[in-house]
Design brief:
The protein has 5 helices and 12 strands. The protein has one domain: outer membrane lipoprotein receptor (LolB), chain A (Clam). The protein is an alpha+beta fold. Helix content is 25%, strand content 38%.
Length: 257
């Protein structure tokens, strides 16, 4: 009994020491990769329009000449209660059918203030650019007991629904106590280093976290585009796409990401 007690005491002491020595990162940069399963995305499109021979042929042609996954890179700069998300231009991008999907692009440049729960999002939608100033997305996360390692950090899993029907899986690092993440994902007790939208065939995962000092000037305020709120942008797009039928769904969905 004494031996058992001694072992339990030792384990508790070691856990306490590890917690005391854990390094918490409050500022730095994170490199993300967004991966789009192009084959699955295009197959879904072909299923929606089974009588459209062009869609089926385009899918077959794409599979012959392109890899299954499209990879896009971005950077998230964070400092205390602010984050700046900035896509990295793809110099090797090619024009093909996949580029017509909003979900296969990176259209957001976002400065988020987690303290005031507001954001400024410079959003490009085809030939138009909008400057969306509004509150940040409220996500009702459900935290689980599942863990995985991402970019060297132990991350805990959380699940949620956004836009009423899109299932989201996120992994956050408690040792980065900034409640931010890539794109418009936030609201967990630590930095989100991984996001997956299984039905949309999209993931964002951190590939590198740099624990470096961040100058205030690096947290840039987006300034280009027509100023709108989320509601105003939604109304503009719905009006413009009212005759597009199901083809409008992808645009509306990606505009709300």
């Amino acid at each position: 009994m004494k031996l058992r007690y001694a072992i339990l005491l030792l384990i508790c002491t070691m856990n306490y020491a590890m917690a005391q020595n854990a390094r918490f990162v409050n500022q730095g940069t994170i490199e993300f990769e967004k991966k789009v399963n192009a084959y699955a995305l295009l197959k879904d499109q072909a299923k929606r329009y089974p009588d459209n021979i062009w869609s089926t042929q385009a899918l077959e042609q794409y599979q012959k000449n392109n890899p299954q996954f499209k990879t896009l890179k971005s950077e998230l700069i964070f400092k205390n209660n602010q984050t700046f998300f900035n896509p990295i231009p793809d110099d090797n991008a090619t024009n093909n059918w996949l580029n017509s999907f909003g979900s296969a692009k990176q259209s957001n440049i976002i400065l988020t203030n987690l303290k005031t729960e507001t954001s400024i999002n410079q959003k490009s939608i085809y030939e138009e650019t909008y400057l969306v100033k509004d509150s940040i997305r409220k996500i009702n996360w459900k935290i689980t007991d599942e863990f995985r390692t991402i970019a060297g950090y132990d991350c805990r899993r959380a699940n949620a629904l956004i836009m009423d029907s899109i299932y989201v899986v996120a992994f956050y690092a408690e040792t980065i106590p900034v409640s931010g993440g890539p794109e418009t994902f936030s609201g967990l007790p630590g930095m989100i280093l991984g996001v997956a939208l299984p039905r949309e065939h999209i993931t964002w995962f951190a590939t590198k976290v740099s624990d470096v000092e961040v100058a205030d000037a690096q947290l840039k305020t987006p300034s280009k585009g027509k100023p709108v709120t989320k509601k105003q942008l939604s109304d503009i797009l719905k009006s413009a796409l009212k005759d597009w039928g199901n083809y409008a769904n992808d645009i509306l969905k990606s505009a709300d990401m």
